[in-house]
Amino acid sequence: MSKTRGFAPQSEWNKVNWRKLEQILFKLQKRIYQASQRGNVRVVRKLQRLLIKSWTAKMIAVRRVTQENKGKKTAGIDGVKALTGKKRLALVASLEVYRKAQPTRRVWIPKPGREEKRPLGIPTMYDRALQALAKMALEPEWEAKFEPNTYGFRPGRSCHDAIGAIFTAICKKPKWVLDADIAKCFDKINHDALLKKLNTYPSMRRLIKSWLKAGVMDNGTFSSTDEGTPQGGVISPLLANIALHGMESAIWNFANSVWKKKGHYKRGLTLIRYADDFVILHQDHKVVEECLEVINKWLQDMGLELKPSKTKITHTFEGFNFLGFNIRQYEVGKHHSKQGFKTIIKPSKESIQKHYGQLSNVINRYKAAPQEALIRQLKPIIRGWFLYYKTVCSKETFSKLGNLLWNKLQRWGYRRHPKKSKTWVNKKYWGTVGKDNWTFKKGESYLPKHANTKIVRHKKVQDTRSPYDGDLIYWSTRMQKHPEMTSSIGKLLKRQEGKCAHCGLTFRDGDLTEKHHIKPRALGGKDNDENLELLHLHCHDAKHGKKINLSELDDNPF
Description:
By secondary structure, the protein is of the alpha+beta class. Helix content is 45%, strand content 14%. The protein contains 21 helices and 16 strands. It has helices spanning 18-38, 41-53, 55-68, 85-94, 125-143, 159-170, 185-188, 191-198, 202-212, 236-244, 247-257, 262-266, 285-300, 349-365, 371-389, 395-416, 422-429, 472-480, 487-495, 537-544, 550-554, and strands at residues 104-110, 117-122, 176-181, 216-218, 221-223, 270-274, 277-282, 312-315, 320-322, 325-331, 341-347, 430-433, 436-442, 445-446, 513-517, 532-536. A four-stranded mixed beta sheet has the order 2-1-4-5, with no helix packed on it. It has a four-stranded antiparallel beta sheet with strand order 6-7-3-8, with helices on both faces. It has a three-stranded antiparallel beta sheet with strand order 9-10-11. Strand 12 and strand 13 form a beta hairpin. Helix 2 packs antiparallel against helix 5 and helix 18 packs antiparallel against helix 19.
């Protein structure tokens, strides 16, 4: 184990200077990213080996899977979960690249709105930590290689960036659209093809191969895995992205190879991919059909194929759904638009029905519950939905949903008090917030309204930018303005200049954050922004535990 400053082990988990470890790790990842950009494979491999062996990276990997991850209390086949500080340090000391992976535990989860279920493979806590460590080394290398129009499972990129890319591609000219979905993408990836494309150094290759070939335990029955990546693993999304890397290049190479027509084929040709869903856009129907054949052939090399039921060619004037949005162009008069059409993106009918169904189910389940309990259950569902859709033309949809919800809540109130007048029921359950006299309210708790949401356009991420490029100001500013960021957290980020109030590090995409009350509520502290500060999840844990003097720890030669 390296004894250089920042890499020597600590005896107590709560005394670790996480600020310093995060800085060391990020500098190393940034160097891997820059070397990969230059095409210097030798330096990339050298730095990846250094990262994999470092105590710093091992500590952060263990913290992520045992302290920050939502599945920290979900056990693999060994039954290990929710580790204490001592056990976390023991896990760090035991992490070795050469250890063979254990089988994953098979869990079946229902697919939303369908009878079929999706298989999840839950690795052991040891394998999860090792996967997090491998991901730290591999992700910066591949972030420098990934194509600009891939958005799913990548740091700093979201669904809204993919939708923004589609709008940019079609806003000037109507186009034909190939809307496609890859059938059982995670379950069918060819292992040999994936490992060949990964092209990493031998010990990392053996490690990833052992995860792919580890097998699964389903109710005590072992099954081998000859294809696919286990859904539920920390590194699985990255491996899936690596497997699908090259789709954009494939259609561009095809366009460049067309004799005497490559200018026509390349003009306006766009492929936008989010995870295993993608669209191909072009103004010529024939070009889109030929691209479909190219992609089908390209996918066969990875052992994949398109799902016929979810693959179709349509036109932007007919519209299509992507990531819960409906994208469509409408013909208008020349006085409305010089182009003669308008591109309108709004929530899809399916997502509206699903959202209202969720709200209705909650209200039906809480028929006899107190009003505060109903508000507590509905609030995150409503807030999450309108934050996701507030970047597009959703005002009319928000208004419609607000009316439907208002009627449903009124019926909920009338049912509880059949012998009271409607006026009495309305006064009991509705109050005034600001200028709105019809807010579903109890005391200080009230239900936010869809229609009160302001439409704020999202600015798409710049082409090949990555959080590993070191431009923390750019990424911090994007975090503050992210569509799914609540206004309260956005204000705190702006006030704190994008930095954690405890450790002082700049927040990065994927960091788990929590609000901390400066003056505790037990001592009369309020929930307003003046009494709140934003912290990393682990910093919040440290704040409520033993307080650490960071300046003293900086002088500690570890």
